[in-house]
Amino acid sequence: MGILARLSLQNFRNYECLDFELDPGVTVLIGDNGQGKSNFLEAVYFLAVLRSFRCQQLSNLYRWGTGCFVVRGVLQCEDGREVSLAVQYDSKRQLRVAGQPVARASEFIGNLFTVAFVPEDIELIKGTAGTRRRFLDVTLCQMYPRYLTLLQEYAKAHKSRNTLLRHDATDRQALSAFDRVMAGRGASIIDYRHRFFEELSSHQDPIAGAYCGGWPLRLNYRPSIGNDPSATVEELTEQLMEALLESLPRDQQRGQSHVGPHRDDYLFMLEDKSLHLFGSEGQCRTAALICKLATAHLLCAMKKRESVVLLVDDVIGELDSQHQEAFFSLLTQGAQTLFACTDPGLAANFESPACYRVSGGTLV
């Protein structure tokens, strides 16, 4: 929709009260560790996707000694309009768009588009399947408005089916009803994921060439069913329904569902070898950067460059000068970039950046 023109924080991490205006282009946040640079980027990310890139518990976002935080933003749209976004959390979440309350996250997400580059990105390769699915789901929720609704409806049916498996696994009629919802929504989710990996590869290949001389990096999507990307949603629905029926005895025995997109994974492959198993630290960090850069390029292509905010938090410290130069040249794709660092000299990599010193939750 637009870029971020103003960010206001109350009791978010170490920010007691902040009201900050941002310009298009590059903003560089300079400061020692622990002063609030990452917290600022985290607040922008939270305003976009209603989750943190550092933790899953929202209570961890409270300023110490408080029980409520507020994040507000004003978006500057291409047509000159301004749209306000606001999130308040005090044991329950309250959302507002353009001053009006909204009940569902799907009505909120999709106003501000962002990609975050953080040191934890290495967990996309070295971490769990759940970590990889979270990145995938957050990205797809921004790209496709319907995807979040599908996820929510699938998760609700999945939870209800598991409850039934643990407490009344003989109720075949109820199980069948949940199976139909999981199969239908799950098939659409898998279809979106197939589409994402196909589109991502068209951006990833040239980035890998520019960044490290043409690495043969591939993301190998491994759905629990439906490994054929050409399968229709109807075919995937049938496959998932059959798989749920086949898995029922095991599901009843263990009290949980073993088939569906909640079990999907994808692997980063280099020369047909899994980086998760065989990659060095440097290879894994390089692969994570390439994946995030490709995601940023894809999001810019889908949502228009003028609507994408890139958040970069201390991810180049271990790169040599050649790879740093390549990273900066590939990074300048979004209309707005917020770059956090401890070294003021890094600002020279951008043309006419706005620079601010961050200290103790204040920006100067």
Brief synopsis:
By secondary structure, the chain is an alpha/beta fold. The chain contains nine helices and 15 strands.
Largest sheet: 6 strands, antiparallel
Report the β-strand fraction as a percent range: 15-25%
Shape: globular
Taking all Cα atoms into account, the compactness measure Rg is 21 Å
> Helix count?
9
The quaternary organization reads as: single chain
Shape-level CATH architecture = 3-Layer(aba) Sandwich
Strand order, largest beta sheet? 2-1-4-5-6-7
Uncertain spans: none
The end-to-end distance, rounded to whole angstroms, is: 28 Å
Order of helices and strands: EEEHEEEEEHHHHEHEEHHEHEEE
**Strand-pairing-aware structural class:** alpha/beta
Helix coverage percent of residues?
40-55%
Q: Which fold name fills CATH's third level, the topology? A: Rossmann fold
Strand segment tally: 15
- How many distinct domains? 1
What would the average pLDDT be, to the nearest integer? 93
The CATH homology group name: P-loop containing nucleotide triphosphate hydrolases
Q: What's the CATH class label? A: Alpha Beta
